[in-house]
Amino acid sequence: MSDHCNKTGFATRAVHAGAAPDPATGARTTPIYLTNGFVFDDPEEAADIFALRKIGFSYSRGSNPTTAALERRVTDLEGGTMSVAIGSGQAALLVILLTLMESGDEYVAASRLFGGSLGLMRRLEQRHGLKVHFADPTDPASVAAAVTEKTKAIVVESIVNPCGSVVDLQAISAIARRHKVPLIVDNTLASPYLIRPFEHGADIVFHSTSKFLGGHGQVIGGIITDGGSFDWAGDARYPLISAPWGDYEGIVLAEAFPKNAFAVAARLYGLRDLGPGISPATAFLTLTGIETLPLRMARHCANAKAVAQHLAGHPAVAAVSYPSIEGHPGKALADRYSPEGAGSVFTVALKGGDQAATRFIAALKLFSHIANIGETRSLAIHPATTTHRNMPPQERAKAGVAGNVVRLSIGLEDAADIIADLDQALAAAS
């Protein structure tokens, strides 16, 4: 595992990074600071914090000691320079796009994404004029062909939701570099344990912490991490980062914060102005979840591989999308980027068609019928009628979520019990 920020290993940093015993009480676990505001020492300190001349806490919507510990930990694990914790993964994507773009701007996005991301992008185009050009993330040539002179960013997932394909980040990063635009990577399905996109040329990474980082299906949250790699200085295409802020005494973030200018802009505009803050209690539960991330991800991947391999040989199954199993066309790429396994989310296409898929989900007993992924328990959903229902049928087919497809999120139960439940549900669906 990578040790970007110090000499200790990933598992050690998952437990310790960004946190320390509370100096006031000695509490070893990071306290939950349930306060909306913070007392200033004097009027000068208050003015300095609000003018960005001094780092400090003022109002929990923008930052909070519990939230800051989560931000430091994810920054460390991803190998970035600064993170911004936020109310949800959807809010994270929204803030990233709005920090970079204005009405009339364009960007390229993967056509295979989390259904909520696709829906948000279409709504932003319809209502706010942020034009998106969709491209196949598994084909770098498709991404390159979608870039225009007006492109201001490229957005992909490291591991594609829901099919589990691993994306060639280095190839797409090379395209972004040629056109001098930032590469934004949703790393939710991989987590930094499996893939660290900054090592492969990403500039901005975000997560829905509701999934693997939190891991227990308890809370909704998101986080944005700045890689500190993109040169924003003097780039007029990104005025929130490269131009003066009149309401902050003319500060230019790219000059004042050269290593984390994007993160500062996302905090100022995203949290102070737009307001989708994260609860300190949510930050605390996510911090606790991250402590076991290496253990959980190893188990998730081992179970997913065993389950996918079994289903690939089942007579009722037409196809399994998990790329880490033998014979899958994406295995070489998955082994290159995520040698410990391509996460635990993938799709299964049933030979019996749409009705077989819905009967299959109804017959599951151990699996929970839930729209979330990345929990300790195994989950299943029918994307065509839920998470991807607003997509035209032809686009759903291209995205690998036709009517006969079920998305599985493999949990931490015993693999034999997971397989037994799937087998009995397949039998009932036939």
UniProtKB/TrEMBL annotation:
Cofactor(s) demanded: pyridoxal 5'-phosphate
GO biological process entries: cysteine biosynthetic process from serine; L-homocysteine biosynthetic process; transsulfuration
Similarity annotation: Belongs to the trans-sulfuration enzymes family.
Protein name: O-acetylhomoserine aminocarboxypropyltransferase
Source organism per UniProt: Chelatococcus daeguensis
Signal peptide: none
GO molecular function, one term: pyridoxal phosphate binding
Alphabetical UniProt keywords: Pyridoxal phosphate, Transferase
Listed Pfam families: Cys_Met_Meta_PP
GO CC annotation, single: cytoplasm
This protein's record includes keyword Ligase: no
Keyword Ribonucleoprotein: no
InterPro entries: Cys/Met-Metab_PyrdxlP-dep_enz, OAc-hSer/O-AcSer_sulfhydrylase, PyrdxlP-dep_Trfase, PyrdxlP-dep_Trfase_major, PyrdxlP-dep_Trfase_small
